[in-house]
TrEMBL record:
Protein name: DUF4145 domain-containing protein
The organism's place on the tree of life at top rank: Bacteria
Residue ranges the record marks as coiled coil: none
GO process annotations (BP): negative regulation of DNA-templated transcription
Lineage: Bacteria, Pseudomonadati, Pseudomonadota, Alphaproteobacteria, Sphingomonadales
Amino acid sequence: MNQPKRQTVFKKLRSLTGARPDAKSSFELWTFPLFNLSAEPRDPGRDREIALVCASVLEQALEVALLTRFPGVTNELERQLFSDSGAPLGSLSSKITLARALGIIGERAKGDLNAVRSVRNAFAHSRLALTFETPEISAACELIDLHHRWPELSASNRRNDARETFIECCFEFTLHLTMFGDEKAERLTKVVLDVDR
């Protein structure tokens, strides 16, 4: 394939990362994979996939919440903020830090999101065959504090199960980050995101 054609293919591929779904389908697109992952039969061979998909969906929801604080952001500016090479909000870490600085999340929620980020990074970059039963992965999932802020969640979540804790955390944060600013969902969103607004 000639060089100009290759560049066109890669440019089109990059454009997919900044594409915005319409408002009607966006929630379903983000949360659907999370519903399925928790309901599927246990297969430790899929733990890497689960960690990467859950964290990716959560990261997209964090972008949506951040965008509520940036009025008038065009598609081009959004791409420059989140997707371009060297984008100031190109890493999950920078998004978490800014969300905390803007009051979108509280300190405990920041800790939960950093635990998710650390687990995601371990699965993404390790050459080892990791699972949620790997002691270091399991220990990081134990740091997730969401069940203390929302005790009702403990009834539905097996707290000694790192995989379920991780999936549940990603799902709940995704749900509440995408509802950030919705006054109807305000009470529970405050609990999950650990904010007093």
